[in-house]
Amino acid sequence: MTILAGVFSRGSLAQIPDSICESLRKNISRDPNDRPIEFRDTHAFLIKVDIGAFDRPAHRVAPTGSIAILAGEPLLTCHGPTGVERDAHLAYLQSKWDEGDLQALRSASGTFCAAYYNAAKGIGYLVADRLGLRTLYYCVLDDFVYFATALRILEAIPEVPKVLDILAVAEATGFGYPFGGGTAYADIKMLMPCEVLALEQGVVTASRYFNWEAIEPIRCTQEEAMSKTYGLFVSAVRRRLRSDKTTFAYLSGGLDSRCVVAALRSEGARAYTFNFSLANTQDQAFALAYAEKSGTIHHELPTEPGPNWSAVMADTWRSWPGRHQQMPEHPSLAWTGEGGSVGLGHVYISPEIVAHLRSGDMDGAIDIYLRQQSKTILTRILEPELGAQLHGHLHARLLKELREIRCADPVRAFYIFLNLNGPRRHLVNHFDTIDQHRLEFQVPFYDSELLEYLTALPADPCLYHQFYVKWLALFDPAVRAVPWQTYPGHVPSPIPIPQDLPDQWRAPASADHRTRLEHELMTRSAAMLSCENFPSCVLRKVNLQAMRWACKLGLGNYSYALKAALAYYHYWNIAGGRYQLPPAVASGRQAKLGHLD
């Protein structure tokens, strides 16, 4: 199964209206060829769509009468399931859930989410994987619990209130994503990593079946750590590959996708590889060179920055004649190197951050992190009182998040925060548009067993890809025979890099592409600023007008500010002008919930 949605009733007298079921049917997929499968009784409605990526749709009615539906695959590592396929894993989990046992999820290493309903016991569960990668949104409102794997589905249900959460959008534009389980809407949340939302006899509770901060540190030599990490990585690839003989994968000029492809090739798999970088860059050249060394069937399509990369792969893969040489057993499963640089390369933790954390100066560490990653809320575009209130918010909120991760080692706490937040938010667009591009990802670097071990290792030897680059010695020599693109300041490739090849951070988009983007931004921002429904209680129009004119006349580049304003405006329109202010701002006004008449 690929997309799931539904609604639970919280009360014995509250029956689910036909209108809600019809909204879910209408909006679960935008592909007119999809034929949803559904289950309904007076207190539950579950609906799902499957694109066929994993052979068999994962939905099951147990002898007990309970029903379970699954998106993705759990990839259990325990001995209970009767087979390696996800149907067997779902059957095992469902049998445990029938007994009220959620701890079987502890052995799930894959990317998945699930919904479970037991009418006889009046129980419903919503389940997230250990990293929360497979998004599942929910809204608890009055007599009902609504849920869906794509935010657009809940947006389309009239009964689900859309109230703009200004603080969450400020975090999204300034930090990259809202903290915790927040979304752009006050009443819609995202399941957190390891979280189970349970409905029992009308009462909704949340619990975690695994605690990342409870992982005990490991003492071992670096050679032992590299060997164990390599073994876990290969196991993660094997669990996902199973008996497949042919695959296809993204291949960039960096290390993460290279290691994934190397592991596939070491398992004897035929690999079609694809590169979508700009022409004449390190990314393109090194991908091609490694493909030739490792023997993949390689295809490159120079692509301007910023598209939906899932859609680019889907369109290219399905139109490429070369795939018919030998069709993969699972032609809708694409392999990616997502997560390697964060989990193994510790890319966002610098020695300066570590030094401040080790000395007990968490405030200083946060300041450095926010500065190094250019994370800030643009208060100049906001209504003055609101902007003043949000000054320093990212620092305060990140401090709160880190303090809630109770690790003796503050560096490990920082590492856990990065792994449990950025990755799941980074995949949101992939899963929100999966009904259109119709590709599932295999992401072995996000294997929970692998990341659990990496979390137990000391962070210091892993900084700046130090451990990662040494770890490469365990792979086929072809991995190190070709230069790779490195993050600025990280351990460089030992093979010289041609000076005429820019990396991905310095390679400019084409002039035509930049012109198109600028024209689109000017058009959209003009429409926003001239709209009668402009959110003047949130955005400061006079500043935005000045910034737009500065861009238009070439006096300054404020495109980043206009893009941030458009994010507020987008959700403002969906919310119909309803909004929720941060508490301190709201207390100075007549009502916390506002509405523009």
User: In total, how many domains does the architecture comprise?
Assistant: 3
CATH architecture of the largest domain: 3-Layer(aba) Sandwich
Reading off the top of the CATH hierarchy, the class of the largest domain is best stated as Alpha Beta
Give the class from helix and strand content and strand pairing.
alpha+beta
Q: Strand order of the main beta sheet, please?
A: 2-3-1-9-8-11
What is the fourth-level CATH superfamily of the largest domain? HUPs
Shape: globular
- Mean pLDDT level: 95
Rg computed from alpha carbons, rounded to a whole number of angstroms: 24 Å
Unreliably modeled segments: 589-593
How many E-type strands? 20
Number of helices: 22
Measured between the Cα atoms of the first and last residue, the distance is: 43 Å
Classify the fold: give the CATH topology of the largest domain. Rossmann fold
Helix content, binned percent: 25-40%
Assembly annotation: single chain
Percentage of residues in strands:
15-25%
